[in-house]
Design the sequence.
C-alpha cells in the first residue's frame, strides 16, 4: 500500500486528494457533498480519484479526514440529549453563563438567549467538594449519586458530562463518577472535564465538556461507519491543525469543531512556503462560507477559544474567522430598505445556485459570476454544467427589484458586496489584531477563492496574491500533509515572585511527557517529535489572560515576562508596569513529522504564456465589457506571465486576473498575482 488519501467535506463539495507516497504525484477529485450522510459523498470521491489514478482503495494505507460532522451537529442543533453532573450548589452553571450579550445596547432587549446544550432538568448535583488547593472538603456521596444517575437514564439521556468545581486541580471525584456512570448507565458515553479541559474557570470548563458530550455519539458513529467502510487507518484533523487517530477524535470531538478550516490553513502554509512567503493571510472561499486566518513566520495563530454559531468553547484552534460568504450565498433585496444584501443564507449543494440547473431559483454569487462571464461552462471537471440562462434569470430578479438597467449591473453589485464582506473578515485577523495586511501575502483557495482573490488583493493591499496548485482541493491537501499532534495542559496560578525557572521547566517537562506518550502510542518515534510550549499570562489583578508561545531552551521567567509585555502592548498599546506578572496555565504540544510530498517543479518556459491559451471571452469589469484571454492552467510553465484581463481554468477552480494586474507562474506551480508594474 503506497497511497495517502486526504478528504475534506465542505457544505457544497467534498474534496479528495490521493498522494503517491513514493513519487509524490497527486490525483484529485471533487464531488457534491451529501449532507444527509457525508460518508456517501466521501466514498463517491474516493471511487472517482482511485479511477483517475488507476488504482484501487486497497492500495490506500491511510485516510486523513477533515470533517464538519461535529460542527454541523452544533449549528443544526442535532446533537445528543446530554445529562450533566455538577457540584452541589452549581446546578445552574450553564444558565448563569457569562454576562455578555453580543451586539449593541439593543441586544439586551432583542437578543434571544441560546438554550444550553444540557437542559436544567437533565442536570444533577453531586454531593462533593474539592478545594482550590486540591484538598477534599466534602467526600463524594456515592449512594446519592447512583440514584440521580438512574433518574437521568430514565429521562432518556444519550450522553453524560461531568464537570465538578476545582476538578482541574484534583480529578479523584470526577474519575469515580465516571466509573459509577459506567455501571449505572451502560452504553452511555461519558465526558469528564478534567480530561477534556483541565483548566481554570468552571463555566468555560463545563460548557466545553457538555459540548464534547453533545457531539460525541454522532461523531463516534460517523467515524466508526467511515472506518468500517474504508477498512483503513483513519485520522481526523483537529481544530489546531494537527491530526488525531479516529479513537482519540471520537473521545474528544470538541477538539475537531474547526476541523475543515484548519486543513485549508495547513495546506496554504505549505503552498506559500514553496513560493517563498512565510507571512500570509489565508482566504478560503467555498460554496457556503469563507474562512480567513493569519500566519506569521510559517506558523498559524492558534487561539484558545473555538466559536461555532452562538457557542464558544475553550479549545485550541487555528484562529480562523468565518463569514457567511460563499459561491452559494443568496442575494436579496429587503422590501423595507431596497438595499442589496448578500448572505449569510446559502443555496448549499442542493438545489444550489440557479446556474447548477438543479431547480434552484435564488440569485447567488456563483450566478453573478456566470453573468459577468468569469466562469466556464462546466465546473468540477465536468461534474456540473452551468446554465447561463437560469443564472441571468435569477440575477435579473435583483436588477428588477433595484430598478437597475442591466443584469450585469446587478451581478457586479452582488460581487462587490460579497468582496466587502470577505474584506471585513480579513481585517478581523489582521488590522484588528495589530497587523498591517500589506506586510503579508494573500493565499486564496477553495472552489471560489481564486475567482475573487485579485479583488481582495486590491482591497487589502496584500501582494502577491498566491493561487496554489489545485486550490479547490487545498483543504484535502492540508489534511494529507499534516502530522499527528497532541497537547497537555495544567492550570498553575502563581505570581512570578513565587516561581523559579527550574520549577517552570519541570512542569513543562511533565506536560511534554504526557503529550509525547500519546503520540508514541500511535507509533511515532520520539526522535521525530517537535515540542512547543505556551503559557497563559496576565498582570496580577487582571481578569483575562494572554497566551504566549515560548522556547524551553534558555528559558527564564524574565524572558517569558518580556514576551508577555510585548504581546500585551501590541494588543492594547499599554503596559501595567507596577503590576506583577502572573502565570495561570502552562501547555505543551507534541507534533509528529509531516509526511514527505514531492513538490511540484514546473518546466521553465519564459514569460510568454501563449502555449496555454484556450480561447477568448467577453467579461464585464468595472461597468464595461472587455475581451479576456482564457488559459489552461495545466499547460502553463514556470516563468509565464499572464496579463489581465484573463481567466485561468482548471478542474477544481477558476482564477480571474483583473485588468492592470498580471499573474506570474512560480516554479512550484502557484500563480503570483500582482499589479502589472510589479509583476513585470
Sequence:
Amino acid at each position: 500500500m503506497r497511497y495517502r488519501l486526504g478528504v475534506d467535506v465542505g457544505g457544497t463539495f467534498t474534496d479528495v486528494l490521493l498522494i503517491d507516497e513514493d513519487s509524490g504525484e497527486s490525483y484529485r477529485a471533487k464531488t457534491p457533498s451529501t449532507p444527509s450522510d457525508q460518508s456517501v459523498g466521501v466514498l463517491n470521491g474516493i471511487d472517482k480519484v482511485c479511477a483517475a489514478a488507476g488504482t484501487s482503495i486497497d492500495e490506500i494505507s491511510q485516510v486523513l479526514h477533515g470533517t464538519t460532522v461535529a460542527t454541523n451537529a452544533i449549528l443544526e442543533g442535532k446533537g445528543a440529549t446530554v445529562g450533566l453532573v455538577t457540584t452541589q450548589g452549581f446546578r445552574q452553571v450553564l444558565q448563569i453563563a457569562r454576562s455578555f450579550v453580543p451586539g449593541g445596547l439593543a441586544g439586551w432587549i432583542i437578543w434571544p438567549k441560546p438554550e444550553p446544550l444540557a437542559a436544567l432538568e437533565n442536570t444533577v448535583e453531586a454531593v462533593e467538594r474539592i478545594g482550590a488547593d486540591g484538598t477534599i472538603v466534602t467526600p463524594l456521596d456515592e449512594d446519592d449519586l447512583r440514584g440521580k444517575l438512574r433518574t437521568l437514564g430514565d429521562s432518556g439521556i444519550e450522553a453524560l458530562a461531568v464537570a465538578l468545581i476545582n476538578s482541574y486541580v484534583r480529578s479523584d471525584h470526577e474519575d469515580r463518577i465516571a466509573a459509577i456512570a459506567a455501571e449505572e448507565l451502560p452504553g452511555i458515553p461519558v465526558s469528564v472535564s478534567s480530561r477534556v479541559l483541565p483548566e481554570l474557570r468552571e463555566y468555560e470548563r463545563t460548557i466545553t465538556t457538555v459540548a464534547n458530550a453533545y457531539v460525541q455519539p454522532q461523531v463516534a458513529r460517523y467515524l466508526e461507519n467511515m472506518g468500517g467502510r474504508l477498512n483503513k487507518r483513519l485520522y481526523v484533523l483537529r481544530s489546531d491543525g494537527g491530526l488525531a487517530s479516529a479513537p482519540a477524535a471520537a473521545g474528544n470531538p470538541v477538539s475537531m469543531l474547526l476541523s475543515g478550516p484548519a486543513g485549508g490553513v495547513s495546506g496554504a502554509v505549505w503552498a506559500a512556503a514553496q513560493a517563498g512567503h512565510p507571512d500570509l493571510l489565508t482566504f478560503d472561499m467555498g460554496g457556503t462560507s469563507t474562512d480567513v486566518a493569519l500566519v506569521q513566520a510559517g506558523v498559524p495563530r492558534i487561539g484558545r477559544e473555538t466559536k461555532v454559531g452562538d457557542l464558544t468553547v475553550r479549545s485550541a484552534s487555528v484562529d480562523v474567522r468565518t463569514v457567511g460568504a460563499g459561491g452559494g450565498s443568496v442575494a436579496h433585496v429587503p422590501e423595507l430598505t431596497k438595499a442589496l444584501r448578500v448572505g449569510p443564507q446559502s443555496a448549499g449543494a442542493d438545489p444550489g445556485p440557479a446556474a447548477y440547473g438543479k431547480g434552484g431559483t435564488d440569485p447567488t454569487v456563483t450566478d453573478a459570476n456566470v453573468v459577468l462571464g468569469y466562469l466556464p461552462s462546466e465546473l468540477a471537471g465536468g461534474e456540473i454544467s452551468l446554465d447561463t440562462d437560469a443564472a441571468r434569470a435569477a440575477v435579473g430578479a435583483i436588477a428588477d427589484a433595484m430598478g437597475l438597467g442591466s443584469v450585469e449591473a446587478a451581478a457586479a453589485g452582488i460581487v462587490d458586496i460579497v468582496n466587502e464582506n470577505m474584506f471585513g473578515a480579513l481585517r478581523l485577523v489582521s488590522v484588528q489584531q495589530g497587523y498591517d495586511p500589506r506586510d503579508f501575502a494573500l493565499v486564496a483557495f477553495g472552489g471560489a477563492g481564486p475567482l475573487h482573490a485579485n479583488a481582495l488583493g486590491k482591497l487589502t493591499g496584500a501582494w502577491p496574491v498566491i493561487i496554489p496548485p489545485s486550490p479547490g482541493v487545498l483543504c484535502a491537501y492540508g489534511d494529507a500533509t499534516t502530522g499527528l499532534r497532541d497537547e497537555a495542559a495544567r492550570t498553575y496560578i502563581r505570581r512570578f515572585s513565587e516561581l523559579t525557572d527550574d520549577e517552570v521547566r519541570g512542569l513543562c517537562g511533565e506536560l511534554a511527557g504526557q503529550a509525547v506518550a500519546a503520540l508514541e502510542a500511535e507509533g511515532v518515534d520520539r526522535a521525530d517529535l517537535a515540542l512547543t510550549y505556551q503559557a497563559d499570562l496576565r498582570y496580577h489583578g487582571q481578569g483575562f489572560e494572554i497566551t504566549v508561545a515560548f522556547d524551553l531552551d534558555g528559558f527564564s521567567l524574565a524572558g517569558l515576562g518580556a514576551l508577555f509585555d510585548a504581546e500585551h502592548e501590541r494588543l492594547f498599546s499599554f503596559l501595567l508596569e507596577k503590576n506583577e506578572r502572573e502565570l495561570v496555565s502552562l501547555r505543551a504540544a507534541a507534533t509528529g513529522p509531516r509526511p514527505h510530498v514531492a513538490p511540484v517543479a514546473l518546466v521553465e518556459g519564459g514569460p510568454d504564456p501563449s502555449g496555454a491559451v484556450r480561447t477568448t471571452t467577453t467579461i464585464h469589469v468595472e461597468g464595461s465589457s472587455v475581451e479576456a484571454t482564457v488559459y489552461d492552467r495545466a499547460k502553463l510553465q514556470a516563468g509565464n506571465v499572464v496579463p489581465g484581463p484573463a481567466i485561468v481554468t482548471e478542474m477544481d477552480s477558476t482564477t480571474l486576473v483583473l485588468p492592470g494586474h498580471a499573474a506570474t507562474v512560480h516554479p512550484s506551480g502557484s500563480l503570483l498575482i500582482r499589479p502589472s508594474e510589479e509583476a513585470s
In short: The domain at 79-218 is CATH 3.40.50 (Rossmann fold). The mean pLDDT is 89. Residues 202-230 form the longest helix (29 residues).
